[in-house]
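Ticket #305: bound-state structure for NAP.
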Amino acid sequence: MATESQRWWSEETVAVVTGANRGIGLEITRQLADKGITVIMTARKPQEELSSAAGTFLQEGRRNVVFHTLDIDQPQSVLEFVQWLKTKAGFVDILVNNAGVAKSEVDWEFVQKNNVDSATIIGDIRWMDGISEKYESAKECIGTNYYGTKRVTEALVPLLRPSSYQPRIVNISSLLGLLSFLRDEEVRKELGDVETLSEEKIERVLEAFLEDVKRERKLSRWPHKFPSYALSKVALNAYTRVLARRLEGKACVNSVHPGYVKTDMTLGTGDLSPSQGAHHVVSLALSPPPSPSAHNFLQHHQSSF
Ligand SMILES: NC(=O)c1ccc[n+]([C@@H]2O[C@H](COP(=O)([O-])OP(=O)(O)OC[C@H]3O[C@@H](n4cnc5c(N)ncnc54)[C@H](OP(=O)(O)O)[C@@H]3O)[C@@H](O)[C@H]2O)c1
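RESOLUTION: The complex was predicted; output attached.
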């Protein structure tokens, strides 16, 4: 995190946070707002249907927090949000792509019968018994985490404000998004070769995975733990690198794993509170210029992809 003397932002700085209804996204919004930044807090639900925690936060009535609905799965919602943002702020300095889902199916009967606790189901990297992938939910997971994030990012790139500190895009990824979790060497090489990486390549891999799930083939080429979620984050990391190359000199684009955080997504298991997870994200978003770009971070530490 930048120290006070390295502070490059002001109340004029505009940050957009997706998926701020609960969990890490709500805490990122709070921490950015605490810094005095103007935060556009977004969620797929309208304001009157937000979680009680998000509603309470908004009721604090902070002058530098503005709410707007944004469902990253819905092209029309993204379009309306961008039109609104153009008239409201005109530009963006920080985009935090936090919205995400994890959609594998858990067989709770199996879990109960075998006395497996939630921390093992979610947190043990080797455990997959009682967890399965269904085509519709795998498609939904990849749809939100990769295509939805890309949709909102591409729509906001034209609004990134040119500046000497460079606007920042922070993609919230996962430890499970590391290339090393891919069990097929060809796919690992294909998504790991930054020189030849492209969105078309990334999307071909995603389609191949979904085809395997649809045909109920063995998923031995794909990540063992939560395959659709892990692959969606591998793809998001690859997109981070493609976008960072495209925006070189204009914006800093990075991925970050916030840590294993106690939220609804992890069924309340984890090592960190949402606030601690958010801190890793906010530190990266506010890093003093020259900010890194095209990097992957595991919490505070720079990591390979
Ligand atoms: N918790 C962890 O240990 C952990 C670890 C690594 C990475 N992450 C990543 O961190 C991010 C936040 O996760 P979390 O743990 O805070 O999960 P969470 O508590 O389940 O929150 C997810 C948030 O994303 C929102 N969302 C989902 N689909 C959306 C859409 N189409 N449009 C807009 N918002 C949408 C949800 O909105 P609703 O409230 O309306 O459902 C919710 O606010 C995710 O990208 C996740 O993959 C989490």
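RESOLUTION NOTES: The pocket of NAP is lined by residues 18-19, 21-25, 43-45, 71-73, 98-101, 144, 148, 172, 174, 257-258, 260-261, 263-266, 270 (CB under 6 Å).
TICKET STATUS: resolved
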